[in-house]
Amino acid sequence: MGNEGITVHSGNSTILRHGEAMCRAQQLPKQVHLVLDAPYGFALHRLAGIPCPVVVVTGVSSPSYLITLWELRPNSLIARPAAPHDVLYACESVAKGNRFYEGPPLVVPVLLRTGEVWQPEIGTALPESELSAVAHHLNNLGAASLPMA
Fold first, then answer.
1. Residue 69 in contact with residue 47, Cβ under 8 Å?
2. For helices 13-23 and 84-95, what crossing angle results, to 10°?
3. Residue 49 in 3-state DSSP?
4. How far is CA 32 from CA 22, 63, 112, in A?
5. In the 8-state DSSP scheme, what is residue 85?
6. For the chain, what percent of residues have pLDDT higher than 90?
7. Residues pairing with 101 in the sheet
8. Is 143 exposed, middle or buried (0-12, 13-18, 19+ CB in 10 A)?
9. Which of 5, 72, 88, 129 has most Cβ atoms within 10 angstroms of its Cβ?
10. CA nearest 93: which of 81, 82, 104?
11. Residue 54's closest CA among 80, 28, 84?
12. Please, where are the H alpha helices in the chain?
């Protein structure tokens, strides 16, 4: 492998130290940034200033929050309970150029002009091109997102 490592970012100093300890010996083909979303919302506020490739790990399950995070273009977003080996695997994967989402399906109810409700399900392996197609379709419809309960 290479001689690059993982730079850990978190708004919680205890979680930051644990992340750094977990990643200390990891060697990757290129530098990767790991954002541990603590406190919740940290990733939303800091992600734009962190260079790619970047892996975000969050405990938030709100579809609106996760969609907003994904739109900030991290290379990987993990929104499920993740063991250390899962996080390290994600870092290795993005260092090799992969981009992926792991978490609950992103279901956003949308009220169309006709009053119908459309609920696209974006699964854990939906290609980026399909995500863009869904967003483009919604924009063309002039649809408005409903607040999530």
1. yes
2. 70
3. helix
4. 14, 25, 40
5. H
6. 63
7. 77
8. middle
9. 88
10. 82
11. 28
12. 13-23, 42-46, 63-71, 84-95, 128-141
74-112 pLDDT, tens digit each:
999 999 999 999 999 999 999 999 999 999 988 765 555
Virtual CA dihedral for 58, 100, 21, 37, nearest 10 degrees? -20
Asked if residue 34 lies in contact with residue 9, where contact means CB atoms within 8 angstroms, the answer is yes
Q: What was the pLDDT predicted at 125?
A: 45
List the structure tokens of 89.
Answer: 């695997």
Question: Residue 42 is which amino acid?
Answer: F
Q: Are strands 32-36 and 6-10 parallel, antiparallel or unpaired?
A: parallel
pLDDT tens for each residue of 121-138: 544 444 555 555 555 555
Q: Give me the sign of the Cα torsion angle 33, 38, 40, 46.
A: negative
**Which pair of tokens denotes residue 43?**
């990733």
Taking the C-alpha atoms of residue 76 and residue 90, their distance in angstroms, rounded to an integer, is: 7
According to DSSP, the residues that pair with 122 across neighbouring strands are 106
Please, which residues bridge with residue 55 across strands? 34, 76
